[in-house]
Write a structure and sequence with these properties.
It is built from six helices and six strands; from the N terminus they run H-E-H-H-E-E-E-H-H-E-E-H. It has 157 residues and is α/β, with parallel strands linked by helices. The radius of gyration is 16 Å and the shape is globular.
Length: 157
């Protein structure tokens, strides 16, 4: 089944071909990612997903608050395009979890988002991490390995 159309119609929006491929792959192979996108669809958060070769050293993805306008909160997820498709999908799951953390809160500006992640996670150098996002990334990695390893045709002897 092709899941990309579902994502393009609502609040999770890839903005370049690599982001599009990453989201499509994640939606196709990860029930967790589909659930996170569903949660975002029911919220007032719009997420733009982009790929980049210019992330700070040691980071594979980031989620940033952009603005609140017209009753919507806008976030930007950036994923390293130097990763494999599966690794990008897992990092996307991680970052979508951060977006859900914002969506399920009242945070609606840079300072309130910062406070949210200071309370829920650990941070250094202006970057914050939550246990929930780390766990989602692990689970998505497992899903991708399991679902992609399933043979298309099974032979019985």
């Amino acid at each position: 089944m092709h899941y990309l159309l579902i994502a393009l119609l609502f609040s999770t929006r890839p903005v370049d071909p690599i982001a599009l491929e990453t989201l499509d792959h994640a939606l196709a192979y990860s029930p967790i990612v589909r659930s996170l996108v569903g949660t975002l669809e029911a919220s007032n958060v719009i997420v733009h997903i982009q790929s980049s070769r210019r992330l700070p050293a040691g980071l594979s993805g980031t989620t940033r608050f952009v603005v609140s306008r017209g009753g919507r909160r806008y976030l930007r997820i950036t994923i390293s395009c130097d990763l494999s498709k599966a690794a990008r999908a897992a990092i996307l799951g991680h970052e979508l979890q951060h977006a859900v953390e914002v969506a399920t809160s009242t945070a609606d500006d840079v300072n309130s988002v910062r406070r949210l992640f200071e309370e829920r996670g650990e941070g250094s150098d202006g970057y914050f991490e939550t246990r929930a996002a780390i766990e989602v990334e692990r689970q998505v990695r497992r899903e991708l390995v399991l679902l992609q390893a399933e043979p298309v045709v099974k032979f019985h002897h």
